[in-house]
Amino acid sequence: MTTEVRVPTLGESVTEATVATWFKKPGDAVAADEMLCELETDKVTVEVPSPAAGTLAEVIAAEGSTVGVDALLAMITEGAAAPAPAPAAKAEAAAAPAAAGQSVDVMVPSLGESVTEATVSTWFKKVGDTVAQDEMLCELETDKVSVEVPAPAAGVLAEIVAGEGTTVDASAKLAVIASGAGAVAAAPATAAPAPAAATAATGKDVEDAPSAKKAMAEAGISRDAVAGTGKDGRVMKQDVAKAVAAAAAAPAATAPAAQAPMPRGPVSADDAAREERVKMTRLRQTIARRLKDAQNTAAILTTYNEVDMTECMALRKEYKDLFEKKHGARLGFMSFFTKACCHALKEVPEVNAEIDGTDIVYKNFVHMGIAAGTPQGLVVPVIRDADQMSFAEIEKAIAEKGKRARDGKLSMAEMQGGTFTISNGGVYGSLMSSPILNPPQSGILGMHKIQDRPMVINGEIKIRPMMYLALSYDHRIVDGKGAVTFLVRVKEALEDPRRLLMDL
C-alpha cells in the first residue's frame, strides 16, 4: 500500500513554502510520525512527519523546491522493508532487546507552554548502565529552566539517541531502555556504537536552508553576518531578510559593527594556554539577548531616592516571631516592598502598563516579578495577583518560588505574565545600581543594601538605617513626573507602614 506525503497547512495567508532539508532518503525505513523533512515559509519553519510506517519510496519535491499547500512531497510504501536499512534504523534494531516489546523509549518530557526545544546538557548515565525506575537519566536545558528526565522503567540504558549538546524538539526521543529479560542481552550490543552516535549528533555540520543560501548570494552578505534561528542554528530565509534590513538601516559608518560582534583582541600563546572556553548556556544566551533587546527597544531612564527603614525594621522586629508562629513563614522586607509597590502602582498605572504597537495596555492587576539569582543565571518568577494578597501570602509565595528557582524547578508559566519587577541587589551588598527593564514591562524597582548613615532629623544629626531605591522605567510611556511620584509613594509607605493599612 502506498501513502502520499503532502504539504501540511502552513498557517493563515501562507500559500507556499520551500523544502529546506530532507532528513530521510529513498529506501530509508521510517516510523509513523518520524520527521521526514523541514519546510520553510516566510514566517516559520514547519516539520513534516511521516503519516505511516514503511519505506520512503520516492522524494517528489527535492531540497530547494518551492511547493504550495497540499502539494505532493513524497511517497511511502507501507509495510515494505527497506532495501538497505539506514544507520539509525540499524542502531535502533541493535538496541532492541531479544524479547519483543521490552524496549522503552525515553522521550522529552513536557517543557512548558511556548517552549518547543531544549538542549541535552548532561547525561548522568552511560550506555550499558543499569537504571531504576524514576532515576534521573539526563538533564535538559531550555531558554529558562532546567528539566530533569527520569527513567520511565527499570532496566539497562541500551541506547542514547541524543548526546550532550544536542538540540531536541518537544516530541523527540532521547534514549532507549531495555527492560525485563532482554535488558542483559541489549547492553553489550549497543555499548560500542553509542559514543559514535553521540559524537555524530553533536559534531554534525549544520546545513543552511537552500533559499537562505540563494538569498545571501543575491544580497552579497556573508554567512557570518547572519544569525540563524533554524534548527541547530541553521540560517533560514527570514534570517537573511532581517540581516539585510538591519544593514540597510544602520549608518554607513557603523555598518560593520552592526553586522558582527566585536572581535577579540590579540592573545598570546601563553595566555591562550591558560584560558578556559565554556559555551554559554541557553539560559545565559536568552538573558543576554533579552537584556540587549530591552536596551535597543525601550527608552530606559532611572530615577533615585532613599528610604529610612527605621519603621519597617521596628515593625518587623516586634512581630516577626508572632508572624512566623501563626503563618509558618518568616517576615522579611520583600512583603513590605511588594505591598508598597502595589499601592503606588494603583496611583501611577502607567508604570504597570506596557506598549503594544501604538497602543498602551493598562493592567488592572499586579503580577509581581521577583528577580532571583540562581547558579544558572537570573530568573524572574511571578507572584500573580500580588495586589490581592496578604503579607503572609506574599512571604510564602516568595519563599516557595525562590526555592524552586534555585532548584531549577520553575516552569515557563511561572515566569511569564509579570507586570512589574522588584530586584534586590542588596542581598549581595550592592549600595547603588540602575536595574534594567524586564520587557515588555515598563518599570523595575531596584532595592539595595541597608546601611547606617548620618541623617538630619528635625535639625539634629541622627544615625538611621538607609536604603537607596532606583526605579528604571520606559520613558516612552512613563513621564518623569509619574516615575518620581511612584518612587515617592513607595518611600512614604515604607517610612510609615501604617499608610498601607489606611490606603494613603
Task: Provide keyphrases for this structure.
504 residues, alpha+beta, OB fold (Dihydrolipoamide Acetyltransferase, E2P), Dihydrolipoamide Transferase, 4 domains, 7-stranded mixed sheet, 4-stranded antiparallel sheet, elongated
Walk me through the structure.
This protein has 504 residues and is α+β, with helices and mostly antiparallel strands. The protein has 4 domains: 1-85, Beta Barrel (OB fold (Dihydrolipoamide Acetyltransferase, E2P)); 92-202, OB fold (Dihydrolipoamide Acetyltransferase, E2P) (Beta Barrel); 211-256, Dihydrolipoamide Transferase (Irregular), CATH 4.10.320; 285-501, Chloramphenicol Acetyltransferase, CATH 3.30.559. Helix content is 29%, strand content 28%. Strands 17, 20, 23, 24, 25, 26 and 27 form a 7-stranded mixed sheet that branches. A 4-stranded antiparallel sheet has the order 1-8-6-3, with no helix packed on it. A 4-stranded antiparallel sheet has the order 5-4-2-7, with no helix packed on it. Helix 4 runs parallel beside helix 5 (237-249), helix 10 (334-347) packs across helix 11 and helix 10 crosses helix 12. The radius of gyration is 28 Å and the shape is elongated. The protein starts with a strand and ends with a helix. 33% of the residues are buried.
